[in-house]
């Protein structure tokens, strides 16, 4: 069942009076609950692609269709939305994890994980149960009341993953989520992404981490503006 559809997407930039084609007529259908890894050299456009899927980077041609509800047939053309509508989509449906994720230093680990509740007006009866499960799952139980300055880089990255899982999204887009981490932290995060897909969340990661990519159901190479499946 398709949840995200990329149709003939192109993106160009101007650099020193030259036009540079980053993405050239990309087409891809992403299945619900699948784990997808996009690989490629630095500068190949991987981060640009994630930004486009999140509605943060505009496109020159094409469309990105989000199949919000398969039962009703409800679909959304992400790039036809207003900025505020895209921002709402990122809070509730499509969580984007950039390389430099924003952490609020004045909030504890728990408060950072539960940040989505500031915007979510729905019932929060299960919030503490969900928080306890995720902090245990990601090895953060003893750090719930700590502030970001008191935890390691790997623990910060796990906090970010826990926050993504806490918001219960439909799609997670992660840009180099295990970059510069030791094997133990890479293992924890890799397992967390796999657990997301087992619960029906669709995951798309941009990565240079071979071990993380091997966990994916589908691997793609982005080269010369085109996506090619890695068998």
Q: Could you describe the 3D structure shown?
A:
The protein has 231 residues and is of the alpha/beta class. The chain has one domain: P-loop containing nucleotide triphosphate hydrolases (Rossmann fold), CATH 3.40.50.300. 30% of the residues lie in helices and 31% in strands. α5 runs parallel beside α6. It is globular, with a radius of gyration of 18 Å. The two termini are 21 Å apart.
Query: Distance N terminus to C terminus?
Result: 21 Å
CATH class: Alpha Beta
CATH homologous superfamily - what is it? P-loop containing nucleotide triphosphate hydrolases
Looking at the overall shape, the CATH architecture is 3-Layer(aba) Sandwich
Mean pLDDT: 92
Strands ordered across the widest β-sheet:
6-7-8-3-9-10
Q: How many β-strand runs?
A: 10
Q: Rounded to an integer, what's the Rg over CA atoms?
A: 18 Å
Tally of discrete structural domains: 1
């Amino acid at each position: 069942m398709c949840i995200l559809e990329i149709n003939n997407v192109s993106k160009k930039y101007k650099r020193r009076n030259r036009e540079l084609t980053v993405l050239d007529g990309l087409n891809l259908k992403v299945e619900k609950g699948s784990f997808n890894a996009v690989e490629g050299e630095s500068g190949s456009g991987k981060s640009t692609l994630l930004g486009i899927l999140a509605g943060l980077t505009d496109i020159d041609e094409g469309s990105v269709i989000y199949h919000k509800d398969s039962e009703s047939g409800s679909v959304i053309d992400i790039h036809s939305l207003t900025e505020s509508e895209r921002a709402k989509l990122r809070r509730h449906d499509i969580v984007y994890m950039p390389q430099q994720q924003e952490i609020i230093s004045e909030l504890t680990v728990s408060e950072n994980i539960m940040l989505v509740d500031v915007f979510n007006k729905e019932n929060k009866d299960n919030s503490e149960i969900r928080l306890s499960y995720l902090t245990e799952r990601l090895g953060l139980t003893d750090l719930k009341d700590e502030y970001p300055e008191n935890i390691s880089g790997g623990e910060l990255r796990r906090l970010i993953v826990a926050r993504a899982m806490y918001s219960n999204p439909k799609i997670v887009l992660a840009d180099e989520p295990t970059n510069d981490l030791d094997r133990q932290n890479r293992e924890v995060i890799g397992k967390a992404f796999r657990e997301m897909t087992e619960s029906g969340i669709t995951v798309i990661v941009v990565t240079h981490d071979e071990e993380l990519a091997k966990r994916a159901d589908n691997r793609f190479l982005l080269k010369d503006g085109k996506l090619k499946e890695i068998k």
